[in-house]
Design brief:
about 280 residues; five-stranded antiparallel β-sheet; four-stranded antiparallel β-sheet; globular; binds flavin-adenine dinucleotide
Length: about 280
């Protein structure tokens, strides 16, 4: 294993632009889990980002919250303003692994790891987050809901570092995050849901029910129409258009679909009840 320890972002970008496969390590909570079994990964060059102080803090601007490329879940959990303005970030962060993982794991690592069952990605997507990438050839911004092209495929070149995640500040009239797992901690989501409503409209984001975390346009259209839904079953046709769950070790496709409909229905029933 060859590990480089750059002291600045430009040094890190130079390393990522060099020949061969060079892999960034942030918290290491995804990368190193596979270390004992993926022996071929031992021969690679890794760029340890831990000295890049500029990427650690989260910053508040007038129109956005900026998470750094090394901002951890714990940084967000401890930020009082985040709790007030973006409560789903805190809800999701508190449900990632346990405290040790929350202290090391980063939002950028969650995005680039690209697990369809991730917890950070759905809430970021429901808040219309934008991924800020940097390489020696410049900066690029990609909305998170257009970042993934397929299972573990994304619009990030190997020479690009995620240097930030921009989350626009808006007034939300509805926001909820649900993670259905086998336990309350250290569980991988069988179904994840993040739903928001703001001046930009409804966002419904689903996890663990498709090869990537994704927005659900048919469900969003249904909610935009503003017609109360009579039962969980009434959501099934839209769900069938939006997601493609599979049977796997954690759950069956049928269970995931039905749970998604039930959880969404019960969450929204309270919202419709209040408006009625
Ligand atoms: C016990 C355990 C429990 C877990 N529980 C959960 C859970 O409940 N929910 C959940 O969503 N995840 C969970 N995870 C997975 C993991 O903790 C998260 O995905 C975490 O956010 C990964 O962040 P990291 O900084 O550790 O990433 P790393 O492991 O350092 O990197 C992950 C990937 O991102 C790339 N990368 C990292 N930073 C950058 C960057 N700035 N720019 C470009 N590429 C980058 C790396 O090259 C790698 O491909 C768990 C992991 C463990 C070990």
């Amino acid at each position: 294993m060859n590990v480089k320890l750059p002291g600045t972002v430009p040094e890190a970008l130079d390393l990522l632009a060099s020949e061969g496969t060079v892999i960034p390590i942030a918290g290491g909570t995804d990368l190193l889990v596979h270390w004992p079994v993926r022996v071929e990964a031992h021969d690679r060059t890794y760029v340890d980002l831990s000295r890049l102080e500029a990427l650690k803090p989260l910053r508040w601007a007038a129109d956005a919250l900026m998470l750094g490329g090394l901002t951890t879940y714990w940084n967000v959990i401890r930020d009082e303003r985040a709790r007030e303005e973006f409560p789903l970030l805190v809800d999701a962060a508190r449900q990632v692994g346990a405290i040790q993982i929350q202290a090391r794991g980063t939002w950028a690592g969650n995005i680039v790891n690209a697990s369809p069952a991730a917890d950070g990605v759905p809430v970021l997507m429901a808040y219309d987050a934008v991924v800020v990438l940097e390489s020696r050839s410049g900066r690029e911004e990609v909305p998170l809901d257009r970042f993934y092209a397929g299972y573990k495929e994304m619009k990030r070149r190997p020479d690009q570092l995620v240097v930030g995640i921009r989350i626009p500040r808006r007034r939300y009239t509805y926001q909820v995050f649900e993670k259905v797992g086998a336990r309350r901690a250290q569980a991988i989501a069988k179904v994840g849901l993040a739903v928001t409503r703001s001046s930009a409209g409804w966002r419904v984001v689903a996890a663990s029910v498709a090869p990537t975390i994704r927005r659900c346009p048919a469900l969003e259209r249904l909610l935009e129409a503003g017609i109360p839904i009579a039962s969980p079953e009434a959501l099934l046709p839209a769900i069938a258009q939006d997601v493609a769950p599979i049977d796997d070790i954690r759950s069956s496709a049928d269970y995931r679909t039905r749970v998604m409909a039930r959880v969404l229905y019960h969450d929204l029933r309270d919202f419709w009840g209040k408006r009625a």
